[in-house]
Amino acid sequence: MSEILPGVHAIDGINPSDDFTTNVLLLRDAKGGSWTLLDTGLPASDGYPGGAAAVERYCAGHHIPLTSIQRILITHLHLDHTGNLATLAKKTGARIFAHWLDAAFIAKNPPYTGPGMPPRDAVEVTEKLKDGDEIDAFEGLVAVHTPGHTPGHVSYFCPARRILFAGDAVFGEGSGLVVSTPQYTFSSPLALISLRRLAELDVEAVVEYHGTPVLKGGKAKLADAARKAKI
Ligand SMILES: [Zn+2]
């Protein structure tokens, strides 16, 4: 997909299949010439295409040195988001950000026993986030704790650009959005309450992890998803 919005790149060649997209994002930081990676994709060692090599290939093709990736932001613990975290953290030397709850599960201390694929390699999150924390990345991000899909799921909101990086708080469905699938969700009622909160933000674009990003009218589509959710 490449550059989907100015400074927002979706890594090519990392989707497990055409109908299972994983929008691993590379964000150009407004300051310092650095980059921020948002989620990391499934590991190629499991037979999925892409893996960390897809990120490396994309960076090489865009003349982005791996060491210029100074932060890796994680939305939640599931393997399709943390699968290449250990490898990419080592290759980039980046600081790792995640909510303090999911950070414990990413470190496998304790192991995660909820729905969805647990992390594979234990990784120590260096920056443990709480709701409302500001992150000096991209054009300024705010961590929005959106529990439901996992206990410590976090979405990242850029007020300056009105872009919501929603992770799995919502899934793309056609040109719209739906609340995260119950089968893979720790608590569907919590996911709905979190979605209602996201719909209160002043959002134009919603870049969710699975599905086609919503580039316009995001606020109305978030509200629509919350209204239609059957819990
Ligand atoms: Zn996911």
Main sheet record:
7 strands, mixed
CATH level 4 superfamily? Ribonuclease Z/Hydroxyacylglutathione hydrolase-like
Q: Could you name the ranges where pLDDT drops below 50 across 5 or more consecutive residues?
A: none
Report strand order across the widest sheet: 1-2-3-4-5-6-7
Q: Element order, helices and strands?
A: EEEEHEHHEHEEEEEEEHEH
* Bound small molecules, deduplicated: zinc ion
Shape: globular
Mean pLDDT across residues:
95
At the first level of CATH, the class is Alpha Beta
Strand elements, count: 14
Annotated CATH topology: Metallo-beta-lactamase, Chain A
Give the percentage of residues in beta strands: 15-25%
Residues in helices, as a percent range:
10-25%
Question: Using only CA atoms, what is the Rg?
Answer: 16 Å
Whole-number tally of structural domains:
1
End-to-end Cα distance, whole Å, is 33 Å
Would you give an account of this structure?
- α5 packs antiparallel against α6 (218-228).
- This protein has one domain (2-228): Ribonuclease Z/Hydroxyacylglutathione hydrolase-like (Metallo-beta-lactamase, Chain A).
- The mean pLDDT is 95.
- With 231 residues, it is of the alpha/beta class.
- The strands form three sheets. The protein has a seven-stranded mixed sheet.
- The longest helix has 11 residues, at 188-198.
- The chain contains six helices and 14 strands.
- The structure holds zinc ion (ZN).
- Zinc ion binds at residues 78, 80-81, 168, 209-210.
